[in-house]
Specification:
- This protein is α+β, with helices and mostly antiparallel strands.
- It folds into four domains: 70 residues, Arc Repressor Mutant, subunit A (Orthogonal Bundle); 57 residues; 84 residues, no CATH class; 64 residues, no CATH class.
- It contains ten helices and 18 strands.
- The strands form four sheets. It has a six-stranded antiparallel β-sheet with strand order 9-14-13-12-10-11, covered by helices on one side. The chain has a five-stranded mixed β-sheet with strand order 6-7-5-4-8, covered by helices on one side.
- Helix 1 packs across helix 3.
- The longest helix has 15 residues.
Length: 298
């Protein structure tokens, strides 16, 4: 187990001590700083809470409940015709199934070969079981523009564009003389300053705070990249049916779907922990439509 995964396991165990208790982002951040300073072999990790907490959200072990609160994900089962994924299923429940898992890629996630016996075993213990179909889920997601349309409008004239910092392509806040017509801004140099999405010269939206919408900032960054025709960091190799995500601000909700789909595919050439996801060509076309055809096809 590499050091980062070891630290993630430590954070996950902290959630397990009180699995139904909602934890605040403040308390999580405090713990992440503490364990990284104590146990990291590479010293203090920058942005450590995002390196420890966010991957656990992505793979489905930690759930976001709004108002800056998180908790261990409830026990649940997802399945397709080939495999069954058990998330946060206690050992006492799994022992009653009487069938060994095929693999356990991370503590708290177990993959079984699909069978009616295994599915019934979990259902009989009252565990929610749901069929997973990536294409069906993607087809129900609203276009990015419609999601952002619901955000609160903002009046930039009350601030003045000269006072704004712009979220540049290098994922840093910068000041420049000529800003693009669309992109992410904030009204000052501090992390707590209000963040805004410029839709065009006349329309600005206030980006919801992370405590209310954990994906809002990533969605705004993605919208700006698409509008400005920048590379969004996604590429697809059709011959291997593997999508590579090289974008640390890709929405967690979408990446979780890709991760689950990969685990349920049994595809040996994909590795969700490295941002390489299995997705068939039919489903990647649906995803590409959501992303305005910005996936690089190889």
């Amino acid at each position: 187990m590499n050091n980062l995964k070891h630290l993630q396991e430590g954070l996950l165990n902290w959630f397990r001590y009180s699995p139904t208790e909602l934890k605040s982002f403040y308390s999580i951040n405090k713990l992440c700083r503490s364990i990284s300073q104590r146990y990291s072999t590479t010293g203090y990790l920058n942005n450590v809470v995002y390196k420890l907490l966010y991957p656990l959200i992505k793979i489905g072990l930690i759930e976001f409940y709004g108002d800056g609160k998180f908790r261990l994900s409830p026990t649940s089962i997802l399945f397709n015709q080939h495999f069954l994924l058990a998330c946060c299923a206690p050992e006492s429940i799994r022992e009653k199934i009487g069938v060994a898992s095929v693999t356990e890629p991370f503590s708290g996630i177990a993959i079984y070969a699909y069978s009616d016996r295994v599915l019934r075993g979990f259902m009989n213990q009252g565990i929610p079981c749901n069929h997973f179909n990536l294409g069906s889920i993607l087809s129900k997601i609203l276009p990015l523009q419609q999601i952002i349309k619901e955000w609160e409008d903002d009046d930039i004239e009350a601030i003045g564009i000269a006072e704004l910092c712009y979220w540049g392509e290098g994922n840093i806040w910068i000041k420049k003389d000529d800003y693009p017509k669309c992109g992410v801004f904030r009204n000052g140099n501090e992390n707590y300053n209000k963040k805004l999405l410029r839709i065009n010269n006349h329309q600005w939206k206030r980006i919801p705070e992370a405590k209310d919408n954990i994906d809002a900032f990533s969605l705004a960054v993605l919208f700006g990249k698409i509008y400005n025709n920048y590379n969004i960091g996604l590429s697809y190799v059709a011959s291997e049916q593997v999508l590579s995500v090289n974008n640390q601000y890709f929405p967690l909700s979408l990446e979780r779907l890709l991760f689950i789909n990969t685990l349920l595919s049994g595809h040996s050439g994909a590795d969700g922990y490295l941002g390489k996801y299995f997705i068939n060509q039919k489903d990647v076309e649906v995803l590409n439509n959501l992303l305005d055809q910005k996936i690089v096809m190889l």
